[in-house]
Amino acid sequence: MSVKNRLIVMNFLEFFVWGAWLISMGGYMIVTLKFTGGEVGSIYATMGLASLFMPTIIGIIADRWINAERLLGISHLIGAASLYYAAQITDYSTMYITMLVNSMFYMPTIALNNSVSYAVLQKEGIDIVKFFPPIRVWGTVGFVFAMWVIDLGKWSLSPIQLYVSATAGVLLGLYAFTLPACPPARAKKSGSLLSTLGLDAFVLFAKPRTAVFFFFAMFLGAALQITNTFGEAFIHDFSASYPDSFAVKHPSILMSISQISETLFILTIPFFLQRFGIKKVMLMSIFAWVLRFGLFGIGNPGEGFILLVLSMIIYGMAFDFFNISGSLFVKNEADNSILSSAQGLFMFMTNGVGAFLGGMLSGWVVDYFTTDGIRDWQSIWFAFAGYTLVLGIVFPFVFKYKHDPTLSTNSAHA
Predict the structure, then answer these.
(1) What does the pLDDT look like over 321-369, one tens digit per residue?
(2) CA atoms of 281 and 285, how far apart (whole Å)
(3) CA 317 – CA 258 distance, rounded (Å)
(4) Number of C-alpha atoms within 13 angstroms, CB side, residue 312?
(5) Phi, psi (5° rounding) for residue 407?
(6) Using CA atoms, how far apart are residues 99 and 40, in angstroms rounded to an integer?
(7) 167-198 residue pLDDT tens
(8) DSSP 22-63
(9) CA nearest 151: which of 27, 317, 308?
């Protein structure tokens, strides 16, 4: 199997593991386990809490001591064990602790997946910006495939989704040990305490442009967490008014249009980055989030079904244009010696601080607009749309970046 195909398998399984439960588990916890919005939000916020420190720590270890592909395998095996246990839990407290453990070992693998991909492609002399997006798109395919498996298996409101994810995690954990070696980039050597601890990726905050970028990536990470947490729960709440609608019968398939859209927008990233630069691409992402939430607010499974579909389609731009483009931007801003640490830092800001804030605050917003168990979803989604609109208005004034389209994407830093 060629190097590209091996990375495709890795990316497919990486996001299959997540897709099997990330979108549907919110509905499972609200409808089946009867958890409150705040409880569900806090459980999803464990991904953010874990990402506050674990991706950075794992990135440091991969940069200095242990092969990245081995860490990837170990992390997935531990994550799979925690998901297997979570499938048997019905109380909030135990579920919270178990999903926190899972998050501590799954969240770092997203950055490791990128680092392994970058390292292998670079070792083979393959253009990363040109060839990574078409490889990464298979991660989205894996995510969508997992959602369809759960939906068609009628497991959206069942713990079986966690068993499916755990099985895939074991497969990827074992497969990771067969990947090309990605040894630490730096030998151990004496130096400053910062360097010894591997925290020198934080020097990226010394660049005002990069610091502002991380700041807004954090707020967009919060936006992503909102729809992951409550997207399916929102659809399930139409079961009384639109019981025979496609959306209510197949919520995961409807939500998967978002990820299908990702596969298309990922392929456009090299063009948009080259033509417009990271500033305009991020601005497109922010206003795509405004549309994502706004269309949710006015859509429904009946006459407003097309608005829900449009919201799913726009998600591809909203997610990819800040997540994948952002990862590539951070790669260009960082030295090769801190490649894994820099990716871990990006994850720290988006899936760490951002996701934690998104999970906790979105849970509070949902409960605020809930009366006697009835959720006012239109007000909820409009509140989130207003939040991202503010980000879109402020961003172009504070992010100082001048794009030169005559430079290659790999070298365009200013």
Answers:
(1) 888 778 888 887 777 667 667 777 787 788 778 888 888 888 889 889 9
(2) 6
(3) 9
(4) 25
(5) -90, 155
(6) 11
(7) 999 999 999 999 888 787 664 444 455 554 54
(8) TTTHHHIIIIIS---HHHHHHHHHHHHHHHTTHHHHHHHHHH
(9) 27
